[in-house]
């Protein structure tokens, strides 16, 4: 605002630190660079303009010259070739030279001349029968260069004429019949004549045509012709176009052959075989292509493209007809014939497996008509940044699934494994290169097949009609023993990269062997040791356990949520290694769980063989927390963790829930008034009225004896334990009619319970809640359930091998049918089963119309499994469902899933072994003057040890309210067992008293008896008095 007194102007300062001279220098350099680029662009522009002008002038001159030659041709030979005779086709004539120089497929007059020329060639050949003499005269050797040049140019001109005029000729393109006068037919018949493989110029002519990419022209011709067919297939006659293609593909790969290699993108494989349903139009071409030499050549060509990951598929296909799917369907249709030939080569089978694996990997999953369990998710095609779902045409899906049938699978595995012995070689000998290649090819193909096709169509075939399981097991066993797993060949490296060599074999072996175990019976597995010996099964358990631990804990998948997406338009899926890791983790855990079930039925290996070596205290602490690796392992493969550790986790989870419940409802109490002689009715009426929240809370019980008098004792937990033991004994008593027992006295729901109790399903819901409450409170109850019913608590399906525990006689009859050597239809069995409940017989069909379906040798396996399913699953489905609903009110499914059926029975009832008196003594406290070395205490433990198991259980019930001890030992009894001195002094009156107890505190009040005999007499009287809590 005011003059500061300084007349000078301030100097501008560049904060960038550069002087104005430097800025000017940078600006000058930038201007110079731009000017240089502009001059370069002008030079390029001028050069391009000169080239265009040069080409244009050259083409213009050529067109002028062609016009002149065309006029000369007309003057000499006529516009309709009326002046042409057979000598005009000889080497000395100008007829063919002029024709191939000026002919233009777009010119209608030239097209007419070309057609007429082809007609004349056929006419002259028919007259003389000498094709070579017509074009070469008497001396082919001296004129062969000229003849070959003319004929390969003439042949290409004919193909171009058909291609350029395909829309005008679309009605003629697939016309059959040699006598046809249609222009397209005449051109194609001339090509057939000139491309005969027996002619001396055939090799160079076919090579020239392929270099000119004629298969791409034929592709457009065929697609145009099929648009006009209205879905009709071949009429049965061989068309000339089919003959042309047959001539060309038959030449390739023949010896001697001097054709140069052609870019695979323009080859027959990727131009013609990618046409949907090609063989419907060209059945004769299918026969030609299916010959061993041709299919071997083309599969090898495609296999090389697979190794190079070349994107060679045409881009003119519709979304529902992608090229990789069409070529897969066409190849698979023809391979069966080639594989069935006795001289089929091992190398061809390897190439075929590589190609089909690559193409199947690109397919989206093909859904089955029936619902099945699968590890495959949804697949999307990724194009740029957008996800486009690929849905194949239904007929194309059908073509692929029909082609991969039982015959194809048997043939492919027979060729691959034909030279591999399933007998065990020397343990120190690893698999050779051929065996590694065969195993890799078979496993890669089947792994991708499992992810793509419906499994029920192929599993039984692989399990029982191929040598897949013994070959893979022999391979895996030797690799395991040598501690060296062979890496995959290069053609399959895109599936696994540098992943361990055991991944791919396990991904195939596990589901197939698991399927076998669902069908084999107990005699086959245990006695005959089929399909693997028990020694081999023990080795397999070790391999699976180590693989699972490696996958789930040591090196888990880095992309657990990455789907089966496809990274580009050629169909390669993202993260194939992670996908295989997840699949092996799933199928290996399923198989190991199934082997554990077999071991529980009849032990053939120690249970510790299923436990991982790396489970420690840190792992257990992590397993309790959701979201950790250890917790994921607990859910997916709980058998890797020792049973005692899982029980600790389970009890800690229950304790956590109980603590939260107590914190929310400190003063809530549910009090039951129970009459001992009406315990079931009173418990049902009062417990059924409780909400799920109340069931989790504390329940206190007051007992009334048969006289209606309230029993002595305040429920601090002990009376409730006594109530739970008594109510479960009454409710699950077979006399009540809700449960039946097997020959081994194991309980399962009575299928005829509805005939006895009108509200039987509500009772099963109540019983489920009752059992859950016992487990929730940590109370062991003496209820031996049948294994197949415990499976229902885990929501599992029962199979034939579970039937002996229910009906051993029916099982023996079914096994007799399974191994029956005669004609089963003579036994007059039908797909029906007779139920006999309380003298009432009902007949049920196992299949719709089963009364009219006779059991035969072909369907006997289906009959056996349907009968097993009816008895083990269908008959008790309603009872099991309602029981499970009540059970899951308190016990979550994820808690139960940690245990198998055998372990679940231990959770419910504890060990059936004798009571461990030493463990109880080691975990006992003393009060009132007693101590561990007191003479009364010494006598007490000697007496207790001498009791029978029944009396020991009665004693335990007397002091704790439950006849079974804690599952993990008396260390976990809360509170610890305590012996307190009762009666004060050792007076006669005190010594005459009986021992008493306080079950809520696990306390025994023991007078100081003077002799062992007196102590034993008083203690036995007390525990057998059945006086309820009057002795408390």
UniProtKB/TrEMBL annotation:
<keyword id="KW-0436">Ligase</keyword>
<feature type="active site" description="Glycyl thioester intermediate">
    <location>
        <position position="1000"/>
    </location>
</feature>
<feature type="domain" description="HECT">
    <location>
        <begin position="691"/>
        <end position="1032"/>
    </location>
</feature>
<dbReference type="GO" id="GO:0061630">
    <property type="term" value="F:ubiquitin protein ligase activity"/>
</dbReference>
<protein>
    <recommendedName>
        <fullName>HECT-type E3 ubiquitin transferase</fullName>
        <ecNumber>2.3.2.26</ecNumber>
    </recommendedName>
</protein>
<keyword id="KW-0808">Transferase</keyword>
<comment type="function">
    <text>Probable E3 ubiquitin-protein ligase which mediates ubiquitination and subsequent proteasomal degradation of target proteins.</text>
</comment>
<dbReference type="GO" id="GO:0016874">
    <property type="term" value="F:ligase activity"/>
</dbReference>
<dbReference type="GO" id="GO:0006511">
    <property type="term" value="P:ubiquitin-dependent protein catabolic process"/>
</dbReference>
<dbReference type="GO" id="GO:0000209">
    <property type="term" value="P:protein polyubiquitination"/>
</dbReference>
<dbReference type="InterPro" id="IPR000569">
    <property type="entry name" value="HECT_dom"/>
</dbReference>
<comment type="similarity">
    <text>Belongs to the UPL family.</text>
</comment>
<dbReference type="InterPro" id="IPR035983">
    <property type="entry name" value="Hect_E3_ubiquitin_ligase"/>
</dbReference>
<keyword id="KW-0833">Ubl conjugation pathway</keyword>
<dbReference type="InterPro" id="IPR044611">
    <property type="entry name" value="E3A/B/C-like"/>
</dbReference>
<feature type="compositionally biased region" description="Basic and acidic residues">
    <location>
        <begin position="8"/>
        <end position="24"/>
    </location>
</feature>
<dbReference type="Pfam" id="PF00632">
    <property type="entry name" value="HECT"/>
</dbReference>
<feature type="region of interest" description="Disordered">
    <location>
        <begin position="1"/>
        <end position="24"/>
    </location>
</feature>
